[in-house]
Design brief:
Structural class: alpha+beta
Number of helices: 10
Distance between the termini: 69 Å
CATH class of the largest domain: Alpha Beta
CATH topology of the largest domain: Deoxyribonuclease I, Chain A
Oligomer: single chain
Order of helices and strands: HHHHEHHEEEEEEHHEHEHEEEEE
Mean pLDDT: 90
Strand content: 25-35%
Number of strands: 14
Length: about 350
Amino acid sequence: MKKKLGLINKMMYGNNIVFTILLLVSFVLPFVPPKEYPNVSLLSLVVSPLIVINILFVIYWLFKLKSKAMLSIIVLVFAYFHFGSFFKISSEKNKEDFKNTLSVLSYNVRLFNAYENKEKQVNVPDIINNFIEKEQPEVLFIQEFYTINKVDFSGYPYQYIHYKKKNKLGHAIFSKYPLIHKNSFDFEHTYNNSIYADIVKGKDTIRVYNLHLQSLSVLPSFSFLQKMDSEILRKQITERFIKQQTQVEIILKHMKNLNYPVIICGDFNNTPFSYVYHKLSENMNDAFEEAGNGIGTTFLFENYPMRIDYILSSKNMEVLSFETIKKTFSDHYPIMATMGWN
């Protein structure tokens, strides 16, 4: 029996080493351009489970009273300082300390469920109208907007809704303040797109971007993934990551030399461990990181939680609050943040 337990522990430690090495490799992922190392970039999708697996190894070895727990503990400590906390506990900051504030809400509405079954189309307008009435965001960023819907956006007199040519999938910015310099990137060879505008609030101008980066074109189902040929799946996702990088490069080039604050909202279709997130969030505040709570899930891949929707703001804007609104009809949760500045 003792010999059998020893063999089990030996096998467990061997697996522990493998998953520890994989987590260590993931430290470089935010700096690895998919165009140069497409296969390595795939690891960004599994960093969260790698962290969880290493935590489970720590629990296992501590239960066994084994010093082998130190292997995963050390790597997890490094992961904490490299990626930041995996679980946030924050409190709202006092809005009265700032002369100006702006509340924004970002939501991928999945075409208001227009192409889902009839059951999923029920109460869509009510759900959106109710949380808009409750939260009262000053600016709404909608991804996957569809012109045929019954949502009441009349409380937002300034609107920019854009569809690419012959594309039913659009994006929108709804604002209580004037929108100027409105335009779109109209990315080539994709249904995805991003739009931007300048919001004029009092004497201040804020550039806002509503992003919907290249989708992975994968149904959120493990059974779907299992049915796909692994080589076709690998090629498909790496190609999408490369498109995301190209889109981000276009956006960052457009942002260059701006001399006023920037807010970036939207569905990045990638994790906080990815290259595209790293490039977009560089020198920006991530609203969830600054003022969020929990693990920040915005998208459920069946029961697997993912954070792929973000609100980023310039460093000279303080994030006062962040909320993930769990009532949704879409496969995404709406996220809301308030920024302040003097």
